Amino acid sequence: MSFLDYAPAPESTSILALRSDYGLFIDGDFVDGSGTPFASISPATEKQITMISTADASDVDRAVAAARRAYDTTWSTMSGRDRGKYLFRIARLVQERARELAVAESLDNGKPIKESRDVDVPLVAAWFFYYAGWADKLDYAGLGPNPRALGVAAQVIPWNFPLLMLAWKIAPALAAGNTVVLKPAETTSLTALLFAEILQQADLPAGVVNIVTGAGSTGEALVNHPDVNKVAFTGSTAVGRAIARSVAGTDKKVTLELGGKAANIVFDDAPIDQAIEGIVNGIFFNQGHVCCAGSRLLVQENIHDEVVDRLKQRLSTLRLGDPLDKNTDIGAINSREQLDRIRELSDIGEQEGADRWTANCAIPENGFWFAPTIFTNVSTSHRIARDEVFGPVLSVLTFRTPAEAIAKANNTPYGLSAGIWSDKGSRVLAVADKLRAGVIWANTFNRFDPASPFGGFKESGYGREGGRHGLAAYLSPTRTGSASGTDSTSSPDSSSSARKKAAK
Amino acid sequence: MTTTQLALRDRTQSLIGGEPSDANLNRYLHGIPGVDAVGLEQRAAGLGSRSIKTTSKAWALDRIISLIDLTTLEGADTPGKVRSLVAKAMTPDAADMSTPRVAAVCVYGDMVPYAVEALGSAHSAGRDDGINVAAVATAFPSGRASLAVKLSDTSDAVAAGADEIDMVIDRGAFLSGRYGQVFDEIVAVKEACRRADGSFAHLKVILETGELNTYDNIRRASWLAILAGGDFIKTSTGKVAPAATLPVTLSMLEVVRDWHRLTGVKIGVKPAGGIRASKDAIKYLVTVAETVGEEWLTPHLFRFGASSLLNDVLLQRQKMTSGHYSGPDYVTID
User: Fold this and answer.
1) Average pLDDT of B83-101?
2) Chain centroid to CA A150: how far?
3) Cα four-point dihedral sign B153, B155, B157, B162
4) In b/e form, how buried is each residue of A431-452, taking b as 16+ CB within 10 angstroms?
5) Which residues of A touch B53 (CB under 8 A)?
6) Residue A502 — very low, low, confident or very high, per pLDDT cuts 50/70/90?
7) Tell me, what CATH number does A63's domain have?
């Protein structure tokens, strides 16, 4: 036998107690949706996991009303310390149910269990712990004393990190004193609904968090609802644009975290073995379904061949298959739709003249899969160098000087993240200074921390999530006293005119 | 200078582009890409999280036993202790004769005759199916002695029947940049490994990574030891903490992989010291297989320098066959 054909080591699904169908989570209870329910399938097997409700405009209306009620009667009047207690409780419950959440996430999303277990779920807990600590310290959020919550936040999240994106959205919103209506992505609603059970377990007051499931029209109804004060969206640039258009002219605050086409820059003095790992982690982590993925590899020309050689060798050791197997490195593509898009863009890459190389791995019969793929001989005008593939596809380009690396890295409508690999600290800092990207990693990639702000330049969106900045996105400054000291009108009034005044 | 020494110098000269002097070696070794500690440790941790179950685990446990250099390196070693160690090496588990034998016993030079005698016909003495005798030499563990002493230490052990020599490098010379001296010493010890019939005892070069401290140093010392003709590079004496760690071993394996790409020659790696649990040893097997390839998992190319590891593996092995854990009194002490 071959040792490297590790015996199957599947994580058991017996820890899950899933229902056969899930309703919407509104005002503290699961209720039926008015739209037509749809099946949630496992992308690795195409088997049905459960049925999910669809919220139509009337359901969204109920959810927003519940959130408004909870905001007015409970959450906005509760002390920061008490809000913090709820958040700490949620964080602990996430840790207690970590294995269950990881299994559900891998089953529903298709990502390898080692990632959901070691990255997603621990970060979810970390996010709630971090923002729980902020809840009674809002005076230090950088907006002056007594900053105020915005009101009801409408949050729409993507399918690539379902539970983690939920945490990125809900934790700061609640810490700042907002209430929430959240819509998970259509293909990955499961963990959001398990999270709703955790909220019940935590005795979070009814209506503070509401979860409405459904497709694009549900999200549209939510974002366009007249009684929401804040819209937070993570997803594609196209949808982000539509949201920006629809909220223009309203007084809704908006943060958008959109696509990316990150440059991962490898200089010839880079720690080569770690750089290879970083490249792999940069683009093949989570099957490349990462908005900040390092999808454009910029290698200094004199080490191009060696890097590509080593990269291919390394990719040949990746294990593609059952997301629930603890030794799986590459899981399933989240949906057929996404798989089609990856295939289409890869085919275009080939037609445009780039050289395609694909790791030799067996593809399971059912489910949606795409083997790790590298394109060399890519030029900046190729679509695979410009468009976000959102899959395990890496485009390799070269550069000769730091100036060229910077120019090529910035030559994209996006600007979410970038990576720099070099043993020379001064060069790392000098290059980082000139890159137009919200997050820049040096000698590492795809590392996240709740204390670190995350967000984009240009078409990668606006606003920041994480850290103090992420908190500020859910607050507005209270107008401080005028020179005479007589102005003390900062009552907890949720009417839009008061908010407008406060914002000025 | 003998032909072997000349051949090694020639090979090195063509690789580094000059005489193996301090300056030339310095230029070459400092031109090797650096190691990012955070990334290396992260990769090692990733490899350490592989889940090795059922049939894979059974295979791994047997393979670990056959890769062990069962070791006693105490000031208090006696012929009796060495005989007991050899008995354990030949029959690791008296209750299960299907248990494989270890690769070698590792002792101080003066204990070699007792080990050879105790092994009797089980001594490999050049054959592939026996147990080797490895001797530590060159003023182990500190290496602080004159070259003459180190060489006679080595040739004594070889003359007494040692199949493998575990030498230490001069860490003082390495850390002060006298790479040429370290190189020359290894070349000289290699020559001292020559037997009367012209064959050589295998040379393992101990870097004592705990004293070299940085991964960059460890990587340079690995290259230096291989350039100078070491058959194996070994992490530690076991007398300095930290001894073997997974990131250190991974880094050395990467050098061995690169050397193989460069020259087609396969060099062995031996982590030694501090590996006590089967679970940890399995992480090493995974790291070897996924870094240099599965073909390295043979006694010619990979060893564990360990003593207490063997009994933990035996307990795990018994558990796999019987379905339940026994206890430390169900395996013999050596």
Assistant:
1) 96
2) 22
3) positive
4) bbeebbbbbbbbbbbbebebee
5) 6-9
6) very low
7) 3.40.605.10
Residue A136 has pLDDT above 80, yes or no: yes
The predicted-structure confidence for B188-220, as pLDDT tens digits, reads as follows: 999 999 999 999 999 999 999 999 999 999 999
Q: What is the mean pLDDT of residues B244-256?
A: 98
CATH number at residue B133: 3.20.20.70
Helices and strands counted in chain B (H then E): 14, 8
CA gyration radius, chain A: 23
Residues of B in contact with A270 (CB under 8 A): 33
Nearest to B118 by CA among B165, B161, B154: B161
CA distance A324 to chain B (A): 12
Q: Both A272 and A362 in a single domain?
A: yes
Nearest to B115 by CA among B167, B70, B65: B70
Residue A257 a catalytic site member: yes
Helix-helix angle B3-16:B179-192, to 10 degrees: 150
Are A278 and B39 within 8 A, CB to CB? yes
Burial of A211 (0-12, 13-18, 19+ CB in 10 A): buried
Query: pTM of the full predicted structure?
Result: 0.94
Residues 6+ apart with CB under 8 A from B10: none
- Number of domains making up chain B: 1
Residue B166 has pLDDT above 50, yes or no: yes
Do A436 and A464 reside in the same domain of the chain?
Answer: no
pLDDT band for position A483 (50/70/90)?
Answer: very low
- Domain interval for residue B115: 3-330
A57: burial class by Cβ within 10 Å (0-12, 13-18, 19+)? middle
Q: Number of folded domains in chain A?
A: 2
Pairs of residues, one from chain A and one from chain B, whose beta carbons lie less than 8 Å apart: 73
Model pLDDT, residue A496: 44
CB A17 within 8 A of CB B63: no
A417 and A440 in contact (C-beta within 8 Å)?
yes
Q: Over range B99-119, report the average pLDDT.
A: 98
Q: Taking CA atoms, what residue in A is nearest to B40?
A: A274
Domain of residue A365, residue span: 263-442
Chain A residues in contact with chain B using a Cβ-Cβ cutoff of 8 Å: 1-9, 114, 118, 269-275, 277-278, 317, 326-327, 423, 443-444
